[in-house]
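Input.
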Amino acid sequence: MMMKIYKKVVFIILSFAIIITILWGCKKSFLDRKPIGQYTIETYFTSDTNAFSAVVGVYDASGWDRTFDRMFWTLGDGASDDSNFGMNRDDGSAPYVDINPITDYTNVAEAKLSSAFETMYKGFYEGIDRANVAINGIENSTAVSSEKKKRFLAEVKTLRAIYYFMLVNYYGGVPLFTKPINPGNSDDVTIPRATAEEVYDQIEKDLTEAIPDLPSKQTTVDEGMVGRVTKGAAGTLLAKTYLFEKKYAEAASAAQTVINSGEYDLNPDYYANFIQSTSNGIESVWEIQRVENFTDNGGGWGPDSFDGTLTPIRVGCGGWGQNAPSGDLYNQFVAGDIRRKYTAPTSSDILQGVQMCGTPGAPSMGKHVTPGKMQDAYKRYDIIPLNWPLFRYSDVLLMRSEALMSSASPSAADKSEAIDLLLKIRKRAGLTSPTESDFAAYSDLNLLRSIRNERRLELGMEAWRLFDLRRWGADSLKTALIRTGKINTTTRPWKDAYMLYPIPQSEIDLSKGSVTQTPGY
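Output.
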């Protein structure tokens, strides 16, 4: 499978023509490093500095357009009920010209032939292969100090877990690689799909092994390296993994461990979570760091790899209108909910001193944009310094609340705590009703529904919605898509296959049929 990514025997050289470690400097992200010469895996891991550069190379994949930038929100929001579309334009721009029929459910099967899906699939696997090469090199090195080795391995395993988490939720079971790929070995490109359970088992293994050796968030602050993964980041992903697997007791416990760390709290200012000047704040568990830089190295290693986000729209009013919130999302917010103006603003809202645009039926984007900035304010319009807050503390609280109420028979204590966690989120949003006693009178099922709905309000337009709808079951996704008109009983009927995406056909062909297609496609 990975042969298509690395076509030459020098794939390790390409993977580790990595990034020189330079003096930190207060104005640069720890990711902003310059490329150095070529090495083999045998000659590269000869110092802590080189090993760290390899680790940085694994972080690199988190910032690509095809992984956690455009494809993340295009599918996570655009293929859900939170947004009416992923890509509003159809201007022939490769590889995204073929996205709309997939996100609006007119032709989801197109994903198996989509160049955008192919590059996304390969992008996550390239990140995984970089992780595997780094793990192999660091583990076998006698030159890397023991303390650095433990932390580096923990970081890389966490990143590998993140990349596999995305793949298993897009596709279900996928080929499971934990060793470096040798493109000259046919066995490496004919590995069949593992089951989803096996992929989740690997994610759990990576995270549970990593957490003891990861630093606290405060340590990364003290080091001047905010953005490196921490115990909290890995613990949050572990809680999310358990929740998605319906291991509710384990999910609740993992979330509680993050809570007990004392490193996080709700930011009194909800919007501060989405402004670059207040990024990496008290509520931030882990953000994908963005810096504005302009060295184009052809999409390979180096400063251009650690670029700013390609935001859905550039300004409050204008841009291409990609991934704009749906009127359905707007309508979920009750009067007085301060999150609405930052999630689905209209022309009556002002963000950062800028009047926004849109109507209740067609709001504009409030998160992941810089209001008032035109494209010509940046040297490159597609590289904008705006972090993506992947894991927030509010998500941790809601995951524990949901896990407590998802068990077969929640205890009275579980219900009380779930309500308390829910109310913390709603209080920050400016909401006082329903009250604690109101929620206490809810049936267990209705309280669970309220917690799930709160996820939509709290995390709206943060690209987690599609995964949430899928994990709650086919009825949840189907109902949401019917309500927003993305499927109907005539021209776009529901198909159970929509719970997953098809594997790119090119990868099936490359595997000579060892990798099978997702059922229904």
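The chain is about 40% helix and 5% strand.
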